[in-house]
Amino acid sequence: MTAVSLADPSAQIAADAVVVGVVSSSDGPQLAPGAKPVDAALGTRLVTALKAAGASGKPDEVTKIPTLGLAPFGLVVATGLGPDAKQSEQVRRGVGAALRALTGKKHVHIAIDAPLDAVAEGALLGTYAFTTYKSSATKPALRKITIAAKSAPAATAALRRARIVAEAVFAARDFINTPPNDLYPESFAARASEHAATQKLSVEVLDPRALARGKFGGILAVGSGSTRLPRLVRITYRPTNPKARIALVGKGITFDSGGLNIKTANMAAMTSDMSGAAAVVAAVVAIAALKLPVEVTATVPMAENLPSGSAYRPSDVLTMRNGQTVEVSDTDAEGRLVLADGIARALEDDPDYLIEASTLTGAQVVALGTRVIGAMGEAGLRDRVAAAGNAAGELVWAMPLPDEMRSGLDSPFADISSLSSEKGGGMLVAGLFLADFMPEGQPWVHLDIAGPAWNSGGARDYTPKGATGAAVRTIIAAAEDLAGR
Ligand code: BES
Ligand code: MN
Ligand code: ZN
After folding, report:
1. Which of 121, 126, 139, 158 stands 20 to 30 A from 480 (CA)?
2. Which pTM was predicted?
3. Residue 466, by phi and psi: left (phi above 0), alpha (psi -120 to 50) or beta?
4. Which SS3 state, helix, strand or coil, does residue 176 take?
C-alpha cells in the first residue's frame, strides 16, 4: 500500500501533484480550508482558474489545473467537497475521487484541512487497483502521499488507524475480485489463513470430512454439487482481558449459480457472493491490528453452489449443525443454509454479540439499492451497529423482522422451510430464517450487503468498479464501539 505521512503545512510543498478541496456555495466555487499555501504559490489565482475551468465544487467533480512551471508542483487537483467541507464522508469521497484520478504519479500532497482520519482513509481507499490478471504493464503504484497537518500523537494515531482500515478494505476487495476459478472453498480457506497469519491469529479449517463429523448439514448440502468441496474457517483474535466477546459470521459462497434452481440472469456477478466472508475475515485481522480489547472469532462457511448429479435438490430435508431440520424449497436460497450452520457453530462459544454479513437476497437490492446496507436482528445491537457504520461513512439502515411473517416459513415436514409461502419482503424473510437459529435474548445483527458489495457501475469517490469492501468499516467501527473506544 502507498505510504502516507504528515507534512508541516508551513513547509515548502514538493510533490508531483497537490490536492485541494473545492466547496460549492451560492457565490460559486470556493477553496476549502488548507488550500491557502497552494493558492499563494500561484499568485492567488486558483479560484479564477477553477471558475474558468467550470468547476462548481460538487461531489465527484475533479478539476486538474496545470501550474505551467509557476509552482514547485506540476499539477493542482481540485476536488469537489459539496457544500460542507467539514463533513467527514464528503471529505473521504472527495479525496478518494482525487487520488483515483492521479494514478501514475509518484508523490501526491493533500492540502485540505479537515478531519485527518477522513482525509487519510479517503486517499488510501482511492488508490486501490486490482491488476493481478492484467498481462500488459500497468502504471506503477503511487509511492507516497503526504497530508498537510501538524504532527501530534492524535494525528499519528489517526494515520495508523486509516492504514489498518484501508488495508482491511483492500484485503476484502482482493478476495472478492479474485475470480471463482481461482477462489474456491479450498483456496479461499488457504488465502484467509495466510491473511490471518499476518496478525498471528489462530486458524482452524474444517475440511469436508470434519464437516461431516461435525454434522454441518447445510454447508455440506450447498457444497455438494461442486467438485470443489466446502470448508468452514474459524479465525480467532484473543487479547488479554477482553471487554466483550464478539462472533463474526460471513457468507462465503465462492460462486452462486443458483444450483439446480439455476439462475437465469446476472449470474456472473455471483463471483461476489463471498463478500460477507471477505468482510469478516478482513475485519477480524484489522481488529487484531488495532489491538482492540475484544475477543473476536470469525466463523466462515465456504461453498460453491453448482448444479450436478451430486447436487442437493429442492425438496431435500437437511439436518443442520444444531439439530434443526430445514426443507429446501429452492437451491438458490443457499446462503441462509450455510449461515445457519455457521451461526450455530459460532453460538457454541457463547458470544456476547453476533454480527453476520452476507450478500443474502436480491430483495435487499430492490428495497435499498446498491448504496444502503440492510440491518436486521435484535434491536439493541442492530441500532448500535447501524449507528457505528453510518458514523464510519457507510450507509446502514435498520429493517424490521415482523413476528407476523414467521408463519410463512412453516414447513409441513421440517422445522422450517427455506422459503416463505407468502409473497414479498424477501430480505426480511431471510432475516427471519436466521432469527430461528438465535437463542432468545442473544444480541445479534444480520447485515444484508447484496447491493452495496459489488459496484457494477463506474468507479466513483473512493469506490472502484467491482468489489467495494462493503461492511468492513462498519464491522470495525462496531467492534471499536463494543470495545468502548
Ligand atoms: N446470492 C444471492 C443474492 C444476491 C442477489 C446477491 C443479487 C447479490 C445480488 C442469493 O443466494 C439468492 O440467490 N437469493 C435468492 C433467494 C430466493 C431464491 C429466495 C434471490 O434473492 O432471488
Ligand atoms: Mn442464491
Ligand atoms: Zn447466494
Report:
1. 126
2. 0.98
3. left
4. helix
Q: Which tens digits make up the pLDDT trace of 194-231?
A: 999 999 999 999 999 999 999 999 999 999 999 999 99
Query: With a 6 A CB cut-off, is 448 part of the ligand 1 pocket?
Result: no
Residue 258 Cα to ligand 2 midpoint, Å, equals: 5
Residue spans of the domains in the chain: they are 3-151, 166-482
Closest protein CA for atom 19 of ligand 1: 333
Q: Is the CB of 333 under 6 A from ligand 1?
A: yes
Q: Where are the alpha helices (DSSP H) in 369-471?
A: 379-391, 426-435
**Residue 362 beta carbon below 6 angstroms from any ligand 1 atom:** yes
469 neighbors 169 (Cβ within 8 angstroms): yes
Residue of the CA atom closest to atom 5 of ligand 1: 362
How is residue 391 written as a grid cell?
458514523
CB 349 within 8 A of CB 297: yes
Name the packing angle between helices 379-391 and 472-482 (round to 10°): 120
What local confidence, expressed as pLDDT, does residue 136 receive?
86
Q: How far is the CA of 271 from the centre of ligand 1 (A)?
A: 12
69 CA to centre of own chain: 41
Q: Are strands 144-148 and 107-110 parallel, antiparallel or unpaired?
A: parallel
Q: How confident is the model at residue 6 (pLDDT cuts 50, 70, 90)?
A: very high
pLDDT, one tens digit per residue, over 348-402 is 999 999 999 999 999 999 999 999 999 999 999 999 999 999 999 999 999 999 9
User: Under CATH, domain 3-151 is a member of which superfamily?
Assistant: Leucine Aminopeptidase, subunit E, domain 1 (3.40.220.10)
Model pLDDT, residue 140 = 83
Q: How far is it, in rounded angstroms, from Cα 344 to Cα 327? A: 17
